[in-house]
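sanity check this chain:
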Amino acid sequence: MTAPRLTGVARHPRAHADTDTETDRVAFADPDRPEEAADTRGADVGSIQLDAPTKLHKLAEPQAKDWHFAIGPYLWASSVDANVSLGPTTVSSGVDFIQLEQHAKYGAEAVGEARYKQFGIYGDLMYGVVAVDGSRDVGPLMVTLEGGASSILVDGAAGYTFYGDDQSLLSLEARAGVRYQRTGVSAALGISGASISPPEQVDAGADALAGGHVVVRPASWFSLSSTFDYGVVGASSKTWSASGDANVQLGSRVLVSLGYRTLTMDRTHIDLVMHGPRAAVQLTF
């Protein structure tokens, strides 16, 4: 018997399957269309593992600063309503800004702050010397007062931000602090033409304050802020302050603020109400 003649070469079925698999799983990039190139990094081609390193470049995110500093002068164009006791007499005056400007001799005002994360300390200094004049009928006598008064007002506070931060649309901060005020009056007291020069009268005292600070930030360079406080214990029978400001950040080092502030203080020898617009320029770090 003649054996059948083989006219072809038989291929192992597994070898054929492996070849097809390799062909299916390997992709080559078209040099003219690189966007369609298959990414074979880390792919299992047959029994070969392609472990080409993959580099991930994460965009650098801006790091929030822990410390913030700001300091600078400001101008408070305030109207003053004062009631000052001098010995047995009391001289009352209501002076608007135009009149106060004519009476003022000189003054200095400055504001500053330092913050670390959610904690902050704040200071506000105001010193001024003004001319004092007034008159009042005491029975049948005319009492006049002419001289000068110097006053220093210092607010210091510590705060904690319990909601939001420097990048939030809204942030809320609780504050507690101290207000110190000293007023010295040196003047000549005239009674029906006779001049008397009493010793300098000094009123000084401090009050503990509780309050808060609210900031709304519509943009990174613009914010609206409001600060308020109230005396809880101290030399004054009542004292409180409230202010509102619009703040513009010019570059990374200059902060300009425009706003309005009201401050009241009732004590044994002086009742004081100050209110009016103010402007500040601060250097920020």
Remarks:
- The radius of gyration is 39 Å.
